[in-house]
Write a structure and sequence with these properties.
Layout lengths: L1 H5 L3 E9 L7 E8 L5 H17 L4 H19 L2 H15 L4 H10 L3 H11 L5 E6 L36 E8 L6
Antiparallel strand pairs: 1-2, 2-4, 3-4
Helix pairs in contact: 2-6
Length: 184
């Protein structure tokens, strides 16, 4: 997603498979626009990046960076008791294999740029594409007594002052491919 990073179109971009690994699922690309970027601009940039994956091979430096991030994210997850428990429970449910996580990391590290290009060509097609756009709703008026200026509701503490009205961030979601990552 180099173009999106360079142009600073998104505050966040992530890609993952969902809902899980036990059954065929979707490959999801999720992004949150940054600044004055519109959902249409972000969707167009995401589509361009996906199209680029089909025609250009990912560079060695980027593959190294992605692998390092994958390892670091996995290790970070396992650093807490809760993270370790969740990961062990999830892998036990998926594979019934206590070494699944280790094997999965080895498999992911073996993925080549050419493998990713073949995946994009096979699964990231218009026929498999679903686009969902989540737009912010207008801020709803605060209906608490203090917000309406009624007696009995003190708002003298700085912590009790009403926060400025904001809306949820705009979000663009592009989902592509059925049975992503699963061999048919």
């Amino acid at each position: 997603m180099a173009t999106i990073d360079v142009k600073r179109l998104a505050a966040e971009v992530s890609a993952f498979s969902a809902p899980g690994e036990a059954l065929p699922n979707l490959f999801v690309v999720y992004a949150t626009p940054q600044g004055k970027t519109t959902l249409a601009e972000l969707e167009q940039a995401l589509r361009a990046e996906i199209a680029r994956l089909k025609t250009e091979t990912i560079g060695k430096e980027e593959m190294v960076r992605v692998r390092k991030n994958l390892r670091a994210d996995t290790i970070r997850t396992l650093e807490t008791n809760m993270g370790l428990a969740e990961e062990l429970a999830q892998t036990a449910q998926i594979s019934h294999d206590p070494y699944y996580l280790e094997r999965r990391l080895i498999q992911l590290e073996a993925v080549t740029a050419e493998d990713l290009q073949k995946f994009a060509q096979k699964y990231l097609t218009e026929d498999n594409l679903t686009v969902g756009l989540l737009k912010p709703t207008p801020a709803v008026a605060d209906t608490r007594p203090a917000a309406r200026g009624q007696e009995g509701a003190k708002t003298t503490s700085p912590r009790m002052q009403q926060a400025p009205k904001t809306t949820a961030p705009k979000t663009a979601i592009v989902k592509a491919g059925t049975a992503a990552g699963k061999k048919k």
